Amino acid sequence: MQHKPIEAAGIALTLAYAALIIWLYAREPRTFSEVATSAAVATGTYQIDQEKFNSALALFRREQFRAARDEWLRADPAQGDARTQFYIAYAFYREGWGRVYYDQDLIKQGLEAINRAIGLTANGSLTVDDPNLQMHTAAEVKAELEQAKERSWSDLNPFKVLRTRK
Question: Whose CA is closest to 135, among 84, 102, 89, 79?
Answer without folding.
Answer: 89
